[in-house]
Design goal:
By secondary structure, the protein is mainly α. It has 18 helices and no strands. Helix 1 packs antiparallel against helix 9, helix 8 runs antiparallel to helix 13 and helix 13 packs parallel to helix 15.
Length: 416
């Protein structure tokens, strides 16, 4: 990654503004569908296995980024992201119609999982160009500063929208209660498609190599291989535990509306610390910003030993956990982003980022499927749900050990 940019200063600013708008639309899209998908399945009578299956598909859909990396050479970076959002629009509209009709039964559960997976796949097809565009509009500048600014706007929306969504759904929503949320997501997808088309981009490096040859070239880079292993393990543990927080907390007496509000507290924790993490990454490098959160997540596992039952105590407990988790996740994402951007070459941007995301998808898919089965089996043996979540959180020691082998290009984590 060079310090000079083929784009003018005006183009860089215009591109950054358009990406921030696009991310804001993505935050709304996630609040309306992404964060409510599992709740919609629960309203249909889904089991932990179904939630694990959904988590598996929502990680496997990242495989589409490999196809997006190839198509990007024909449509352009902004073009493939535009098509990803446009193609996901009718699928989301179909989900809204199904919810409005009050679908029910086992078949409806699996059909919903399939629709959510297809929707995610189409969006991931376009997301192949996300990090290449980030590199284009931040070339010669501070990546940490831009990511901090961009994610601040994103977290502000994530702070407000879940409160509105949770208030709309209430404590025990019927399936038909979800259709206005899904319908609103259709409008949001169209807005994001409109905004992404305005993002300027640097030319894609020419190559005569096939897609699979380019992927092999990416995998021959030691820094990429080490980062892929780290991401696969970390996302495996996350996917095997986090999707089941909703079951544990609602079983203990937390109303659905209050659980949705927890998304706002996650965003608040991130928003309150984004500037600090961005400064830390730009000045001290990404490794410290990764390791502090990983160590803290391990220590935070002790909270599951004192999970209260119902009432205000559970609400306070869940609020504290989500606030802390949001703050730690902000640092972890910031550090990971810096190391990933440094590791990928300019010549193979689409393929490089797609391979990294694919590694996390494999880990997430395995974690979602095995996590769902493990969650049910663990509790069938008579153990408490919370013990399962605490044990998996302690296993964060594994990605912590793997993070010690990750090395940025330069001591300060800045682009050479």
């Amino acid at each position: 990654m060079t310090s000079e940019s083929p784009l003018s200063v005006k183009d860089l600013r215009r591109g950054q503004t358009a990406l921030i708008r696009y991310v804001a639309a993505g935050a709304a899209n996630n609040a309306l569908v992404g964060s409510t998908g599992a709740l919609f399945l629960l309203s249909l009578g889904a089991s932990p296995f179904h939630l694990g299956l959904l988590a598996t598909f929502l990680h496997l859909d990242k495989v589409a980024r490999l196809g997006g990396a190839e198509l990007m050479r024909h449509t352009g970076k902004a073009g493939i992201m535009l098509w990803g959002r446009l193609l996901a629009t009718p699928v989301t509209a179909g989900l809204a119609v199904a919810a409005a009709l009050g679908i029910a039964g086992e078949g409806a559960i699996f059909a919903t999982i399939g629709v959510l997976a297809l929707r995610g796949t189409l969006q991931q097809l376009g997301n192949a160009a996300w990090w290449p565009l980030i590199r284009d509009v931040t070339a010669g500048g501070s990546l940490g500063e831009f990511l901090g600014r961009m994610r601040s706007y994103q977290r502000l929306l994530e702070l407000a929208l879940p409160v509105a969504v949770g208030s709309w759904l209430g404590e025990s929503p019927e399936p038909t209660r979800f259709w206005p949320l899904f319908a609103a997501a259709v409008v949001v997808l169209l807005c994001s498609a409109w905004w992404i088309r305005a993002v300027p981009e640097a030319p894609i490096a020419d190559t005569n190599a096939s897609l699979w040859r380019r992927i092999r070239l990416v995998l021959e880079t030691p820094a990429i291989r080490r980062f892929c292993l780290y991401m696969g393990v970390r996302v495996f543990l996350y996917s095997a535990s986090f999707p089941f927080w909703v079951i544990v907390l609602t079983d203990r007496g937390l109303p659905v509306s209050q659980f949705v509000w927890m998304t706002s507290l996650l965003a608040l924790g991130q928003l309150a610390t984004l500037w600090l993490w961005g400064q830390l990454v730009d000045r001290r490098g990404p490794r410290l910003a990764m390791r502090l959160p990983l160590v803290s997540i391990i220590l935070l596992a002790a909270m599951w030993l004192w999970l209260p039952d119902g009432s205000w105590e559970l609400l306070v407990w869940a609020s504290v956990l989500h606030l802390l988790w949001g703050a730690l996740d902000a640092g972890l994402q910031m550090g990971q982003s810096r190391i990933m951007v440094d590791a990928v070459s300019d010549q193979l941007q689409g393929e490089g980022f797609a391979v990294v995301i694919y590694a996390s998808a494999i880990g997430g898919a395995m974690g979602g499927l095995l996590g769902g089965l493990g969650f049910e089996h663990f509790t069938a043996l008579g153990y408490d749900h919370a013990d399962y979540l605490g044990i998996l959180q302690v296993l964060t020691v594994v990605p912590l050990a793997l993070s010690l082998r990750l090395t940025p290009r330069s001591p300060l984590g800045n682009c050479p």
